[in-house]
Amino acid sequence: MSVDGEKNRLFHQVNDLIRSANNIFVQAHARCGDATGSVLAMTEYLRSLGKRYLAFLPDQVPANFSFMPGVEEIVTDKTSFNLAEFDLLLILDCGDLGRTEITDKILAEKNDNAVLVNIDHHYTNDYFGDINIVDKQAPATSVLIHQFFQANNIRLNKSMATNLLVGIFTDTGVFTNPATNQEALAKAADLLISGASVNSIVQSIFSNRSVKGLKLWAKAFERLSINRKYNLAYTIILQRDLVELGLESEEELEPLSNFLNNLNDADVVLVLREKPGNKIKGALRTVKDKYDVGKLAALFGGGGHKKASGFTIEGRLFFNEEKGRWEVV
Ligand SMILES: [Mn+2]
To answer: What DSSP string runs through 38-77?
Structure first.
């Protein structure tokens, strides 16, 4: 996908599909600035064309995203619509169909002649779309959406620019992680010129700490350990931590794994969090060139990028007193 001509041809093709579609479904994965920003920038464009569309995310939008322009339109109840009503499905920032969390619904309801478009930058993307615009070097899907607008001479307004900048900020850790490249900075500059509101992004997304939330970080720091064999730093968060602190979600733990990636005495970082429904979510990070945590996550049925990835497994975390270590049971 490094050949810009081919990518531009696909961007034109997708725009033609958008223009001729009657009803468009736009979705990304849950709880992520890049995913949400990509969806909102795209729906803003669809609105400007006077198109019928539905923007869907499979989980509630985190409270600190509530400033994002257009966010009130996002639907999070998968039972409130039927996919048979759409002739174009735009799936953004999903490495595989499973990331939509509605695979069964898509397979059961989607019209055979509806076109499924996959626009993504995950290293582990499995090309699940009828049309796949996958650029594994892109710092964020928001950057690809920006390229889509540029390729089709679509002018960005302030709302689109703010939403896309949220995506670049969150996926690059505000230009600190290895996803940061020349294009991330160049696109960010362009979004500022288009009127993106840096202040509202920084205040809402990054200055959102509470005392209870930081106490949850304290629990993670207290349990931080290092496995010297693999030079892997790891920590865990339990469901009971939330109960003890009176927190309803671990939203405020973001971006703990990115923060731990600043450790200079570990090569790889792993954060395991218990989730409701007997699930454990793992987040892996590295800054070392020789490691590919995307492959590591794939061993557990997950995926992501070379330097940042995640997976979900079944079970609960339990401290084995005899062995002096945490285990999955
Ligand atoms: Mn992304």
So the answer is: HHHHHHHHHHHTT-EEEEE-SSPPPGGGTTSTTGGG-B--
